[in-house]
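Sample pair:
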Amino acid sequence: MDFSWGEEFEAVRDLAREIFTDRATAERLRTVETSRARVDERLWDDLAAAGLLGAVLPEEAGGASLGPAGLCLLLEEQGRCVAPVPLWSALVAALAVSAHGSAQQRAALLPAAGDGSARIALALEEFGPAEPRAPLTTAVADQHGWRISGTKAAVPSPYGAGHVLVTAATGAGPGLFLVAANAAGLAWEGAETTSHDLSAHLGLDGVAAEAVGEPGTGVVPWVLDHARVAVAAVQLGVAQGALRHAAGHLTQREQFGRPLATFQAVRHQLADCYIDIEAMRMTLWQAVTALEDGEEVTRAALVAKWWADEGGANVVHRVQHVHGGIGVDTDYPVHRHFLWGRQLATTLGGAGAGLYRLGEELAHRGAAS
C-alpha cells in the first residue's frame, strides 16, 4: 500500500517538525511540567499562528480540509518531541463537531478551534468496567435540550477548554453531547497522569447539554475510532523519538573500547524496536485510509491501537533498558518518552481490552456474513 503524501501534507509535516523541534526543548519541557496547567500555551499559539491547528478542519471553518491524515501527521511529529499540548483530544473533538454538529455548533466552535483561541476537551472514559462505547453516564431529554449526570474519568488536558464533548447513554443508544466547561452542576477534580499531563475527573449532575448528532446513530463509534487512531499516531511518534535517542546514545557510548551499538545483543534490541515501529506505522496509515474511505473502520482502528499499545510500550521499555542507569533518570530526555509511551498504551483501554474488543468485532462480522 502506498502511503506517500502530496506536497500539502509534506508541508504540514515539515512545518510541524520544525516548530516542535525548535520549541519543545528539554528546558521548556521542564518548565511546563511544573506549571499549573501542564500545557505549553506558547507552543499552542505557535501552532495556531502557523495554521497547523486549522489545517485539519474543513474550508468552511477556515481550514485546509486535511482531515484525519493531516491530523495524524501533526500528532506523529508531536510524539517525536513529547510536546505538552492537547492536540489529539482537542482536534478530534473539533472534527467530531465538524462531522456531526449542527450548523450553529459548527459556526460557534470551529473558527475558534482552528485559530487556537478556544479548545474543546474530550471526555470518553469512565471508571471501573465501563467500556467507552457503552458509557454509564446518562443523558435525559427535557424541554430545553438534554441533562447529563455521571462521572467521566481522566479527561485529558481540560484546563483552558471552553467546552467539553461528553459521551452518555440515552434511550436511543449512546450519544455525544456538548457542555460548557463551567456549566452549573459540573465539577472538576484534578488528576495526575504518568506522562505529567494534568487531566481531571469530571462530575456531572444534571448539567445542561446540546446533542452533537443524533444519539444512537453511530456518532459515538465515530469519535472513538478517530480517537483511537489519533492516540496511535502520537504513540508512533513517541516510539520514533525514543529510538532516535537510543541510536544517538549507543553510537557515542563505548564499552571495552567499542561503541555499544556494535554489540550484537544491543543491535537485536534495536531491530525489535524497528520492527514494532514499522508495524505501528503500517497499521496506523491503514486505519487512516479506512477512516477516509469508510470501510472496515472500527476493525482497522482497533488493530492500529493494539499495535500502538503493545508495540509502543515494548519500544519505550527496550529503549530505556539499553540506556542503562541513565534511562531511569527522570530528568533525562528518554525518560519522558517512556512515560508518554506507558500513558498512551492505557488510554482508551490497554492492549488486552483492545484485543478483546477486536475479537468481538471479528466475531460479529463473521456471524453477519
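The first helix runs from residue 7 to 23.
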